[in-house]
């Protein structure tokens, strides 16, 4: 039995085309190109002997670092093995009879809701509205269907759709449903405008989750965290969690990376500049529609009958891989997504997309 795939399989590509895995430039995974902060790697090496000890079961130093980094209340922080564990646990805790998702969105939300038999409604992100959310219509759909949980990523993957704090607060004020905000990509945006963490101090029916996988380029350490003022939720997570559920490497690296302001500023500035360059370049091409994004990725639509599968096949000999979005609800075979990597790789991809549009 296979788990759902959330991107390309580099091993299969290297085997099929005879490439070495390290030769393939993966624009599909949305991981920041800087790699894990050097300060965090150095700290793990410096404390390598700590691998012979158990982590603090309360994760006090790690939570203190997260609290300082995010502005969340330390006592409201939950720790998990990636956001995947937090999403699954929260859905079991909330146990909604009816839930609503954006369409398209990250598939794991639906997978976990189906495990508990939730009735799932969809708020369609429509092309004619540039895949943006109309708050009034979303609130109306939540209330008409007695929805108990709204779960979404901010920014949304793959569309780049994003909501402000004021917009999410309107949902909290005008509906009875719980709100789960997945902020996996929010650190690539202006957190003061788009992060919902301050709302967790005002409303106990909202929870905000993040991971270190994308912004800190550390998917391998499986470190996720969330913040909520819902006391029953915190108690549920405490009872359900395994002692030492997050390993010592993740705790050491996490404590350091959350305090590395220089790294954080460099990543944010670089991705913002490269994203804006790419958006401007792509908007100047015929045969392509590009959608604005606040994530470290950009979604595009091929026009004139061209498909993302054709673009994918065109780029493979160049050892470049983008994400074909045909499998996402509410999209089609003409949509693709790519993430921001190193400047040279980004420029090569943009030029290859331009060549594809001209040659096909």
From TrEMBL:
CDD domains per UniProt: AAT_like
Protein name per the record: Putative histidinol-phosphate transaminase
Pfam families the UniProt entry points to: Aminotran_1_2 (PF00155)
Aminotransferase class I/classII large domain sequence ranges: 23-350
Upper taxonomic lineage: Bacteria, Bacillati, Bacillota, Tissierellia, Tissierellales
Highest taxon listed in the record's lineage: Bacteria
GO molecular function annotations of the record: histidinol-phosphate transaminase activity; pyridoxal phosphate binding
EC number(s) per entry: 2.6.1.9
